[in-house]
Design a protein that fits this description.
This protein is an alpha/beta fold and 487 residues long. The strands form 2 sheets. Strands 3, 4, 5, 6, 7, 8, 9, 10, 11 and 12 form a 10-stranded mixed β-sheet that branches. It has a two-stranded antiparallel ribbon with strand order 1-2. Helix 2 links the parallel strand 3 and strand 4. Helix 18 packs antiparallel against helix 19.
Length: 487
């Protein structure tokens, strides 16, 4: 939800807005809901328009396994966020070098939905889209209304570096599964690999003579110590409180087990009433009640909260690994950025300390009605090469879906810490799916109306759980949306 960033027009372009990811923020609740609904109705109409001018299939060769038409234009629209656009422009140059007779129409925008929705309606979408940011198109709707091409041909194609390996065999665990919604078809390729968790300055933690807390009693003790030294324990993106789940959801999984998160994703009755959810909500609410949250946090956006945190006004912030690149211009050189898996409740937790949320972010899609679907997939094949992966990691301080690509690279503090957190987690990696299965439910309802209200002190944990369960029940009964379940 994900891993990705955007320039926020409210910041006059001076600060890099993030969103990665996998999550992708609503610029403002009242603004995003209108285009979301219009997109729903547009997709329901089947898209309209024709695609009779589809590019003809090219000659399939060892160097062109997807049979790209070497004279057909390929159009690529990128989300212009915290990862920037240079990594994509570099990959486009390789595509153009490999097919010198064709042209690539490349553009970057923060307004993915408002820019591309009319083109989906007309049946003239681009060939490759980085569907991210505040105006991310609802992935569940796109899949449910048959708007996307199945990426299986790409995954089964020879990898760019080693023809003896399929593309799918070069990817990090879970990437292929994330792109599936029901059945074997793969609709989305998440290019970035995001580590979600609790981010902090190791220098600041050392100044308190503390280690990262593993139990909630220890967390409260560290926050109290910070408070006495004039530093808040926590801050978060108050205007976009769906950042809170980056640490809250894996905490729920740690306390109650993966099955609790699966039940929530599946929209099962009373899933939110599980004791693990109650325990974790009450723990977070305690941060508010004890005054450990930076004053004014509910009014801060992601950039403002990250800036306050980077300036040492707060110790911890829930975020994704894009935060290192996104906060680079405000983070002191000696900040010593680190990330940890969420603190648990106590030794009775179902999963060990180190349980973390890590998953694909930056969702790339190839529209079903694109003129040059083979070209869109070939561009992704290039991006999933070792060289392109290293280029991305070097430039934006984030891992990619390519399983490797860090050899020979001097890892930045945050990236090094993220890799260490993944190593510590081992198999204890969770991947909640609400953020890509039900975008509006996750962001506007659970995030803004539920968690945001609780952390601002306007709802008790019990009231927030009841409200969120109601939202989930409404979504489960809504026949206008396609429903998904863990297989």
């Amino acid at each position: 939800m994900g891993s990705t960033s955007a320039q926020n027009p409210e910041n006059n372009g001076s600060a890099r807005v993030g969103r990665r990811d996998l999550i992708k923020r609503s610029a403002a609740l009242g603004l995003i809901s209108v285009p979301t609904m219009s997109f729903l109705s547009a997709c329901a109409s089947g898209g309209g328009g024709g695609n009779g001018d589809k590019a003809k299939e090219g000659k399939k060769t060892a160097k062109n396994p997807l049979a790209v038409n070497d004279t057909a234009q390929m159009e690529f629209v990128l989300f212009d966020g915290g990862f920037g656009k240079e990594y994509a422009e570099d990959a486009v140059k390789i595509y153009e070098k490999n097919f010198p007779e064709l042209t690539v129409k490349f553009s970057a925008t923060q307004k993915i939905q408002s820019t591309l929705q009319p083109r989906f309606n007309q049946g003239t979408p681009p060939d490759l889209i980085d569907n991210s940011g505040a105006e991310q198109m609802d992935m569940g709707v796109l899949v449910g209304k048959d708007q996307l091409a199945d990426l299986t041909p790409l995954l089964d194609a020879p990898s760019y570096d080693d023809p003896s390996k399929k593309v799918r065999d070069t990817l990090r665990p879970g990437i292929v599964e994330m792109g599936q919604f029901d059945g074997e078809k793969v609709w989305i390729l998440y290019y970035a690999y995001t580590v979600y968790g609790v981010w902090y300055s190791q220098k600041a933690l050392d100044s308190l003579d503390e280690q990262y807390p593993e139990t909630w009693d220890q967390m409260l003790a560290v926050c109290e110590k910070a408070k006495k030294k004039g530093m808040a324990g926590w801050t978060y993106a108050g205007k976009y409180p769906y950042y809170l789940p980056f640490s809250l959801y894996p905490m729920i999984g740690k306390v109650g087990g993966v099955e609790v998160l699966d039940a929530i994703d599946n929209l099962e009755p009373n899933a939110w009433k599980h004791p693990a959810v109650k325990a974790c909500f009450e723990a977070y609410y305690e941060l508010y009640k004890k005054g450990y949250v930076l004053k004014g946090t509910p009014g801060l956006d992601h950039i403002q909260s990250q800036t306050a945190w980077a300036q040492g006004k707060a110790l911890f912030i829930p975020n994704g690994s894009w935060v290192e690149n996104e906060s680079a211009n405000v983070m002191p050189k000696d900040f010593d950025l680190a990330v940890s898996a969420p603190t648990g409740i106590d030794s009775s937790d179902k999963m060990p300390f180190g349980t973390i949320w890590a998953s694909g972010g930056e969702p790339f899609i190839v529209p079903a009605k694109a003129k040059n679907t083979a070209g869109g997939m070939e561009q992704l094949r290039i991006m999933l090469s070792e060289a392109s992966s290293k280029n991305f990691t070097s430039k934006v301080k984030s891992l990619t879906a390519y399983n490797g690509g860090t050899d020979g690279i001097t890892l930045t503090p945050g990236l090094k810490s993220g890799v260490a957190a993944l190593d510590k987690a081992g198999q204890n990696v969770v991947n909640p799916r609400l953020q890509d299965w039900y975008v509006q439910l996750q962001k506007e309802k659970i995030g803004v109306s539920g968690l945001g209200e609780m952390m601002a002190g306007r709802l008790t944990p019990a009231e927030a759980i009841k409200k969120i369960q109601g939202f989930a029940d409404e979504a489960a009964k809504d026949t206008s949306i396609k429903h998904y379940k863990h297989q």
